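Morning F.,

Quick status update on the modeling queue. The single chain you submitted on Monday has been processed. Sequence for confirmation:
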Amino acid sequence: MNRLLQGDVGSGKTIVAVIAMLAACDSGAQAAFMAPTEILAQQHYETLSGFLEPLGVKCALLTGSLTQKKKTSLKEEIAAGEYSVIV
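Structure tokens below.
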């Protein structure tokens, strides 16, 4: 499913997305959380991994500034299903 969730700052968008991603992961799927900037992606990654990794859900951060070697390796791990949530 593809959904766009929008709302004011502090309205609960992130927690709604976390709950939806957790439901997808519980069903055996992977989930992507997209951010418009690398700084925001890093912040969301830290928040999401803090919420989800204690529950056994592995998270990964995939950004454009990674070296080509790291990107290729991470993409292979994602394709192999090693991560459930990708920011």
